[in-house]
Write a structure and sequence with these properties.
- With 450 residues, this protein is α/β, with parallel strands linked by helices.
- Strands 1, 2, 3, 4, 5, 6 and 16 form a 7-stranded mixed beta sheet that branches. It has a 5-stranded antiparallel beta sheet with strand order 17-18-21-20-19, sandwiched between helices.
- A hairpin with a 2-residue loop joins strand 4 and strand 5.
- The longest helix has 25 residues.
Length: 450
């Protein structure tokens, strides 16, 4: 008789939890997963996927405006928000089914209910107990709204995906990925959009040239971007929300969306009772192999507060499966993780920012270019693409690549491979570009920035 019911019991069927479970099962482990909300986690349901579908929708307004330059004319145009959301929901439902099938095909048993950790080897799902050699916590994170007078009237990105109608005026509070992305979505779909950020410049942690360029481009498009500004009070008057600001002003809006942070979704898991140490934020404290302070309990993804990116959670899940069930101890690799912000325009980045490189003691050469995309030579639109390389003077290695412009994420993905291979600026220079593309600029920059 087996010592435990399962070799691995995973709490959370998001991208990381599903990958860890499937791969562990492929190595011969007996695996179960508990999920209390929806399969696929934040990314599939209220994150990456629906967000990018709305980003696609938001670009049509500009495309319609640009058509005359290419000889096209179009009649009346109108956004059917209800149809857009219904179509989005249909696709998300399909993806939920895909995740369910993947788990089933892998032989992973699925329990749909709330799970809690009873002890280092026991999980309770809605009162039913199961034992496991290892427990994996992969419950993700949840958006939060800070407490202040009237904060109950604000929504988060979770609710934004299901609004019954497009707001006429939207206030976005926050300067991270979600804030700048929803500012682009609402503005592109036709809402008057105001973005507030309490700091000097949004996208903290990104290269300063990305941050400055995106702010300029968003303002050109008509987004009312205000830095060093926050909300101190919201009052509801019928269908209107009155937001009182730190600068003494007041803005009226249909919706106020807060994108100011997320917290690990660990409450109600009883982790601390089992001996698992948590940070003040609720994040699970883990070592380099994703093991918590309890030898049999591991954690991956957003709930560990290491790097809140879906592909990172998936990589952590793969590493964990190899460590526990493939006799191949593997640490997740966080070097040169590429990322994109699906703002309008997009941002893409991989490697060190200029500031990070200097702080680490590198003597760097900076290559930067800014140009109007070929497309807009006919549309007349005042849009600039920015590309930048950070290069180590001593080794000639490219330390960082940064971009603001259409399809930035698509380009940065390939450059991430180059950086992980240790590519030098000379090798970039030796690479023949594809003409005419914006991407060729990454291999044709020859003049250093003073």
């Amino acid at each position: 008789m087996a010592e435990y019911d399962y070799d691995l019991f995973t709490i959370g069927a998001g991208s990381g939890g599903v990958r860890a479970s499937r791969v562990s099962a492929s190595f011969g482990a007996k695996v179960a997963v508990a999920e209390e909300r929806y399969l696929g986690g934040t990314c599939v349901n209220v994150g990456c996927i629906p967000k990018k579908l709305l980003v696609y929708a938001s670009h049509y307004g500009e495309d319609f405006d640009d058509m005359p330059g290419f000889g096209w004319t179009i009649g009346e145009r109108r956004l059917d928000w209800a149809k857009l959301i219904a179509n989005k929901n249909k696709e998300i439902q399909r993806l939920n089914g895909v995740y369910r099938k993947m788990l089933g095909d892998a032989g992973v048993e699925l329990f749909e209910g709330h799970a809690e950790v009873v002890d280092p080897h026991t999980v309770s799902v809605d009162g039913h107990r199961f034992t496991a050699k290892y427990i994996l916590v992969a419950v993700g994170s949840w958006p939060m709204v800070p407490k202040f007078p009237g904060s109950q009237h604000a929504i988060t990105s979770n609710e934004a995906f299901f609004l019954p109608s497009l707001p006429q005026t939207a206030i976005i509070v926050g300067g991270g990925y979600i804030g700048v992305e929803f500012a682009g979505i609402f503005h592109g779909l036709g809402a008057h959009t105001i973005q507030l950020y309490r700091g000097d410049l949004f996208l903290r942690g990104f290269d300063d040239d990305i941050r400055k360029t995106l702010a300029d481009e968003m303002r050109k498009r008509g987004v009312d971007v205000r830095f060093k500004t926050d909300i101190i009070k919201i009052e509801k008057a019928g269908d209107i929300l009155k937001a009182w600001l730190t600068d003494g002003g007041m803005i009226e809006a249909s919706q106020v969306l807060y994108a100011t942070g997320r917290r690990s979704k660990t409450p109600n898991l009883s982790l601390e009772k089992a001996g698992v140490k948590l940070k003040d934020s609720g994040a699970v404290v883990v070592d380099e192999f994703s093991k918590s302070t309890v030898d049999s309990i591991y954690a991956i993804g957003d709930c560990t507060d290491r790097m809140m990116l879906t592909p990172v959670a998936i990589a952590e899940g793969m590493a964990l499966a190899n460590t526990l069930f493939n006799n191949k101890p593997t640490k997740p690799r966080y070097l040169n993780v590429p990322t994109a912000v699906f703002s309008t325009p997009n941002c893409g980045t991989v490697g060190l920012t200029e500031q990070e490189a200097r702080l680490r003691g590198f003597q760097v050469d900076i290559y930067r270019t800014s140009f109007r995309p070929l497309k807009h030579s006919l549309t007349g639109r005042d849009e600039r693409t920015m590309m930048k390389l950070v290069v180590d003077q001593a080794s000639d290695k490219v330390l960082g690549c940064h971009m603001v412009g259409p399809d930035a994420g698509e380009m940065i993905q390939g450059l991430a491979v180059a950086l992980n291979c240790g590519a030098t600026k000379a090798q970039f220079d030796q690479t023949i570009g594809i003409h005419p593309t914006a991407a060729e600029e990454f291999v044709t920059m020859r003049t250093k920035v003073a």
